[in-house]
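I hope you will forgive my troubling you with a question about protein structure. I am sending you one protein, given as its amino acid sequence and as whole-number tokens for its backbone shapes. Thank you for your consideration; the sequence and its tokens are set out here:
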Amino acid sequence: MLRRPRRLRRNKATRNLVKETKLNLHELIYPLFIIEGENIKSEITSLPDVYHLSIDKLEDEIKELKELGLEHVLLFGIPNNDDKDEFGKEAYNEDGIVQRAIKKIKEVDPDMNVITDVCMCEYTSHGHCGIINENGYVDNDKTLEYLAKIALSHVKAGADIVAPSDMMDGRIKAIRETLDKEGYIDIPIMTYSSKYSSSFYGPFREAAHSTPSFGDRKTYQMDYCNSNEALIETMLDIEEGADILMVKPALSYLDIIRRVKDNFDLPLAAYNVSGEYAMLKNAVKNNIVSEDAIYESIISIKRAGADIIITYFAKDLAKIIRKEI
């Protein structure tokens, strides 16, 4: 008998009925760039429709996200240049930009799930993700102490989840032990377990004012030629106490997402990074591809195995998903 797969494609309702991969609003995380100042909502040049926001502009932003059905944000803080130093001390200031932003969001909407990026690059005068030693090399073990302080300060301010992105060896253990010692045993850690040294971070570095003043990050971020290394990094983070895993970037690393998903049973996030967003967003705006390409690209990340997707497309996707419903 002739098999006829087209029978299940004959109309939209039937296609929806048998659809294998579906995107849910509850799985999307929207990044926010919080900047010092007042009355600031300034579009980021390299990231169309994404903005620098001052804390007083957060109320409108959070209400908009909630109306769209989005319930998770990932915060990146941008301090004043004068507050940056070689140790990134502003990152764990109890009255720092992220700490105040967390409190404001929780004041506006206590149910908004606030995830914070734990790193030092936005806060250091040199733009690297850790403490620089006398040889100009990022000192892994010395950096751990600072990362733990940053994570603790975020949680004390009200963060629901902390997400260390620095790629130092042993950071999950250091953060977990610090949080547990202070009584925050229920706070999850979403680890950037497979973060590659990628060209696709360019727009983010402009947005976060975090371009290194010398060298690059290849000594601590992963080599994009490697796949097995991702499994090693992931295994180590799990052993140290990670609760949610992550692959970053996403679209050029779908094979890594699949391998991590097949080998580990923790929830898996994928970060659809700034360069991936900017290329596609500009292609849509210039009528090179239709808006449908946005949904198609994100579905590829979900199909590869991601349970959670961090994306600047979250608002666009919320509108698309609502139309589908």
Q: What stands out?
A: The longest strand covers residues 28-35. The chain has a mean pLDDT of 93.
